[in-house]
Design brief:
The chain has helices spanning 3-48, 52-55, 57-80, 82-101, 106-134, 137-168, 172-192, 207-230, 235-257, 271-299, 308-314, 316-336, 338-356, 365-392, 399-434, 439-464, 478-486, 496-504. The protein has 505 residues and is mostly helical.
Length: 505
């Protein structure tokens, strides 16, 4: 090898390492930030004087904007340069962290979180593309695996770190630290990451589809959140539903006509993809919703009365169960099949939520542990195989689009189901108190009915598994283990090495 070739090889290795550092660190920070915020809601409420029911928009707004942006941001990277869009995502994330940390009222926190939803989705979407472009062959597979591990670690550690910071230096500490770490990735990205794009992709961007996705979700969440207070037959509620329906129709019409649609409607004819995607929506939605309710209940003075750190620590068994189970999911699928694994996952979740339906004011933390671990185990069993199936069930040229559909569904599930459960929790609590129940009994009833709602969704998930292919037994590859580990936060796009291996089978 000549000096020129050696220098080129070394430069390629440096750029690949730079991409690995920048994308893995930002993925860890984004996922930790996302999972931590529910734990911070009571502290933010106390500090800003904003009700927790209003602050649920800090969670649902983040997911709503993320759902609208995650596919579009990836498309922008493909057309205008992935490093450029990735950088803008980091800058936007840092700015949103600073805005939230300086916030004096709940509305500013919510606005900051909506901005953060766009930033986080951009970082994840473009980060994966940068990583794949910077590596080839087995190195590409290893890089994607590390990215998936970083995402999983961030999602698991977020509540504990957020709770610790809220109980020591204040809830703002999470956002200051996240801003500092993300800002440190900016020079790394500028000087050590190569620019890349997709010259074969059409130059048009489906901005209309992006706006219409937001127009579908925002009024729907408003109606679901406020319908009990407004009245389900009121003009406000019916008007929100009407806007949602009209926007959904408009979205379908737009997607049929644009050159590069946000959602390729032809993919909806793929039964396996549809079943897997809806299962991801249910699984991701319920895990986000239960963590939201748990953070409120555990920290309420009339319930368990924990501080933020104790509440974060209390969720550790849930995160640990998901992390420990991740490497075992693919071998399980190889033995009993994806369809059976998904059914078992939803059955475990349904039973676990059934147990939580018996919550009583006298319950101590110890009684919550096993059902919550069961929810995490069930979610991992169904979400991991569904994430792999969503990309393996389509043609290689459709893999990126299928991954985008799954990731959009993950955000939609988190936004809609958290909003529904927040509404159930607050409305049941208010009705119980109005009916003469004690505050403790009212909160327990609110938790119980929230669990019943989520149990019903998981029971529906069992039926959805009928749409997932029978007898699918993927080999326990390194990529599929990473895909299972990252499935709570992201559906990984298989790198070229994996696609070639699948084609050779």
């Amino acid at each position: 090898m000549g000096d020129t070739e050696l220098a080129a090889t070394q430069r390629q290795k440096r750029l690949a390492l730079g991409a690995l550092i920048a994308t893995c660190v930002t993925a860890l920070v984004v996922n930790a930030n996302t999972s931590a915020v529910s734990i911070l809601i009571p502290a933010i409420s106390e500090d800003t004087g904003t009700s927790t029911s209003t602050l649920q928009w800090a969670v649902t707004g983040y997911s709503l904007v993320g759902a609208a942006v995650i596919v579009t941001s990836g498309s922008l990277g493909d057309v205008f340069g992935r490093r450029k869009i990735f950088l803008w995502g980091i800058v936007l994330f840092v700015a949103s962290c600073v805005l939230i940390a300086l916030a004096q009222d709940g509305i500013t926190v919510i606005v900051g979180r909506c901005i953060q939803g766009a930033a986080g989705a951009t970082i994840l979407a473009c980060g994966m593309s940068l990583l794949s472009a910077a590596n080839t062959g087995k190195a590409q597979l290893r890089a994607v695996t590390l990215w998936g591990a970083a995402s999983a670690i961030g999602a698991a550690a977020g509540p504990l770190i957020g709770g610790l910071l809220a109980s020591t230096i204040g809830w703002q500490g999470l956002f200051w630290i996240d801003a500092a770490i993300a800002a440190a990735c900016i020079p790394v990205t500028i000087f050590a990451v190569a620019e890349s794009n997709d010259p074969t992709r059409p130059k048009s961007i489906d901005l209309a589809g992006t706006v219409l996705i937001a127009a579908v979700l925002a009024p729907l969440i408003f109606a679901l959140t406020n319908g009990g207070e407004w009245g389900w037959g009121s003009w406000q509620t019916l008007g929100c539903f009407a806007i949602t329906i009209a926007s959904a129709i408009g979205f379908v019409l737009v997607e049929r006509r644009v050159t590069a649609p946000l959602l390729d409607l032809a993919l909806l004819r793929n039964k396996v993809l549809v079943g897997a995607t809806l299962s991801i929506l249910l699984g991701s939605g319920t895990i986000n919703a239960i963590m939201y309710v748990v953070s409120l209940y555990f920290q309420d003075p009339v319930a368990l009365g924990m501080d933020s750190f104790q509440a974060g620590l209390a969720t550790l068994p849930v995160a640990a169960a998901a992390v420990v189970l991740a490497p075992l999911i693919t071998p399980i699928v190889g033995k009993i099949g994806a369809r059976t694994t998904i059914v078992v996952g939803f059955v475990v979740m349904t039973v676990s939520f059934g147990a939580l339906a018996f919550v009583h004011a006298s319950w101590t933390y110890a009684l919550f542990v096993l059902p919550l671990v069961g929810v995490a185990v069930g979610m991992s069993l169904q979400n991991g195989p569904c994430s792999s199936l969503s990309t393996s069930s389509v043609e290689p040229r459709e893999v990126g689009a299928a991954s985008g559909v799954s990731n959009m569904a993950r955000y939609v599930g988190a936004a809609v189901m958290t909003a529904i459960i927040a509404s159930v929790y607050s409305n049941v609590d208010a009705r119980q108190v109005a009916g003469g129940a004690s505050d403790a009994d009212a909160l327990a009833a609110a938790f119980s009915w929230s669990a019943v709602s989520m149990g019903i969704w998981c029971a529906l998930g069992i039926l959805l598994a009928l749409f997932v292919a029978r007898g699918v037994k993927p080999r326990a590859t390194e990529f599929e283990v990473a895909s299972a580990a990252a499935s709570t936060a992201h559906t990984l796009t298989p790198p070229q090495a994996v696609l070639e291996e699948q084609a050779a089978r």
